[in-house]
Design a protein that fits this description.
Blueprint: E1 16-22, E2 26-33, E3 49-56, E4 59-63, E5 70-72, E6 77-80, E7 86-91, E8 97-104
């Protein structure tokens, strides 16, 4: 048995990406952020759809073409179609933001 909150280092110079499960058309990962954000001017543009859930902490997600930043907290999730450009504007600096992300092909 594993626990999604175990094995989080005290010091995180970069976001932590841990593969949890994968199959032919999907992969699931835990992401741990602590004050991390996408570098200025950089956008994620992925070949797969992504469903992402915040389990702990909080974050601001920006989707290209939208003015408002989506503020996410525990239990909040979004679905991003493939090639929808997005970025993380901010994550909680006082504690961890733990995400569960599923990348898949339709």
């Amino acid at each position: 048995m594993e626990n999604i909150y175990n094995n989080i280092p005290d010091h995180l110079p970069r976001e932590l990406f841990d593969g949890i499960l994968s199959g032919r058309d999907f992969r699931m990962e835990r992401i741990v952020s602590r004050g991390h954000k996408t570098p200025e001017g950089t956008w994620y543009d992925q070949d797969e759809d992504e469903w992402v859930l915040v389990l702990k902490g909080c974050a601001g997600l920006c989707i290209q073409g939208r003015k408002e930043v989506i503020v996410m907290g525990p239990g909040d999730y979004v679905h991003l179609d493939a090639h929808v450009k997005h970025r993380v504007e901010w994550t909680d600096e006082a504690g961890e933001t733990v995400w569960l992300a599923i990348h898949f092909n339709k």
